[in-house]
């Protein structure tokens, strides 16, 4: 870990009982880092991601799965080369900076995301996972390259019906996953189910 020209750091933790820590100040000294992928549990770092992450201006892939971050610092906007941002942690929603739309190279956005201002991210190819209420506020017509979308419904959300017209405008969509709570409904499928039943 002494090579300042290191381009990739990958860490996978198969032992879920093992608590591993990240030395973020040290990580941020690798100025030429392109890939940083940490798949493991570190209870110290729930909350806000370290501001120093913005120093890694060459970063293209940032993976921090199972970390429990709830917020990203505004310094993340300095990562203008970033293509993949993977912050998925089961049960932990992530709040992105308001100007996340400035990350114009972003292709893959993965995590449990709250409010999103991503209408102008025309390079975005996959979005996993966004809640139904946040998705209803996004203009899908501008996401011209989105091919994979995963939407979930939060408990006690105001949006009780998933509107299919929000996805039919995604002309390049190849894979759609919708996870609804027991109290929600998928009106589009319900309509066609009734049509099929009437044909029997």
CATH fold-level assignment: Leucine-rich repeat, LRR (right-handed beta-alpha superhelix)
**Relative strand content:** 25-35%
Q: Write down the oligomeric state.
A: single chain
Unreliable sequence segments: none
**The CATH class:** Alpha Beta
Number of strands: 13
Q: Taking Cα atoms only, what radius of gyration do you get, to the nearest Å?
A: 19 Å
Number of helices: 3
The shape is elongated
The CATH superfamily name is Ribonuclease Inhibitor
Order of helices and strands: EHEEEEEEEEHEEEEH
Mind summarizing the main beta sheet? 9 strands, parallel
Helix content: 10-25%
Number of domains as seen in the coordinates? 1
Q: Provide the CATH architecture.
A: Alpha-Beta Horseshoe
The class by helix and strand makeup works out as alpha/beta
| Average pLDDT score | 79
Q: Kindly report how far apart the N and C termini lie.
A: 66 Å
What features would you describe in this structure?
This protein is of the alpha/beta class. The protein has one domain (8-199): Ribonuclease Inhibitor (Leucine-rich repeat, LRR (right-handed beta-alpha superhelix), Alpha-Beta Horseshoe). Helix content is 10%, strand content 26%. The strands form three sheets. Strands 1, 2, 4, 6, 7, 8, 9, 10 and 12 form a nine-stranded parallel beta sheet that branches. Helix 1 (24-27) links the parallel strand 1 and strand 2 (35-39). The termini are far apart. Keywords: Repeat. This is Disease resistance R13L4/SHOC-2-like LRR domain-containing protein. Residues 8-156 form the Disease resistance R13L4/SHOC-2-like LRR domain.
């Amino acid at each position: 870990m002494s090579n300042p020209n290191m381009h990739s750091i990958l860490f996978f933790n198969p032992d879920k009982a093992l608590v591993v820590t990240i030395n973020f100040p040290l990580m941020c000294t690798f100025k030429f880092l392109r890939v940083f992928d940490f798949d493991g549990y570190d209870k110290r770092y729930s909350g806000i991601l370290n501001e120093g992450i913005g120093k890694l201006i060459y970063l293209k892939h940032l993976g921090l799965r199972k970390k429990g971050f709830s917020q990203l610092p505004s310094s993340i906007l300095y990562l203008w080369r970033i293509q993949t941002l993977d912050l998925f942690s089961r049960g932990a929603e992530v709040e992105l900076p308001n100007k996340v739309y400035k990350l114009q190279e972003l292709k893959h956005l993965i995590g449990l995301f709250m409010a999103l201002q991503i209408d102008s991210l025309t390079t975005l190819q996959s979005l996993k996972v966004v809640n139904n209420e946040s998705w209803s506020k996004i203009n899908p017509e501008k996401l011209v390259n989105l091919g994979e979308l995963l939407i979930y419904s939060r408990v006690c959300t105001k949006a009780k019906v998933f509107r299919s017209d929000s996805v039919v405008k995604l002309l390049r969509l190849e894979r759609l996953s919708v996870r609804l709570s027991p109290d929600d409904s998928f009106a589009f499928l319900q309509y066609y189910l009734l049509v099929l039943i009437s044909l029997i």
